[in-house]
Amino acid sequence: MKRGFSLIMAIFFVVIIATLGMLSLNFSTKTGKQTVNLYLREQAELYAKSAIDFTVLAMQRNDYSKNCLDNLTIKFDDTFSANVDITYLDSAMTGCKNRSGGAVSTYSVKSGKGDNIAIFDVVVSTASGVSPEPIRFHRRTIQRP
Which keywords appear in this protein's UniProt record, sorted alphabetically (predicted)? Predict the structure, then answer.
């Protein structure tokens, strides 16, 4: 009777140790995956700020008498790409097709010179194959270049 009881206790002990090992491995895997996703999200947020700065620079270089900037696509390495949609709020920019409708009142310029006030919708997303779960970061801001 004692030998049989010792065998049952040994099997029970092995099952408990195996279960603890599986839980530890599962927790370690999830922590590693979460760290990678957190790193990619922080990187996407920094790329969104860079895309805003690049769009402001492009707006300052643009000749608005010829054409308006409506959309910019920026590639960062092979990892991320940013898509910036520009909506103009300046009432003096009548030639731009991407102006706010009735939802947002346009800014009237008293000096007679356009200020190019615009809303930027920046979407930064990972390229396919970078991570198992795609990372997508959106930022909306109003800029006055």
Answer: Membrane, Transmembrane, Transmembrane helix
Six token digits for residue 95? 């030639």
Can you tell me which residue has the tokens 């409708």? Answer: 101
Is 119:90 a contact under the CB 8 Å cutoff? no
User: What are the boundaries of each domain within the chain?
Assistant: 1-143
Please tell me the distance from the alpha carbon of residue 108 to that of residue 55, in angstroms, as a whole number.
Answer: 22
Q: What is the pLDDT of residue 102?
A: 46
**Of 107, 113, 110, which Cα lies nearest the Cα of 87?**
107
**pTM (2 decimals)?**
0.72
Shortest CA distance to 122 belongs to which of 64, 57, 73? 73
- What is the rounded distance in angstroms from the CA atom of residue 27 to the CA atom of residue 45? 27
Average pLDDT for residues 82-104, to the nearest whole number? 71
Q: DSSP class of residue 31?
A: H
Task: Provide the pLDDT confidence category of residue 128 given band limits of 50, 70 and 90.
Answer: confident
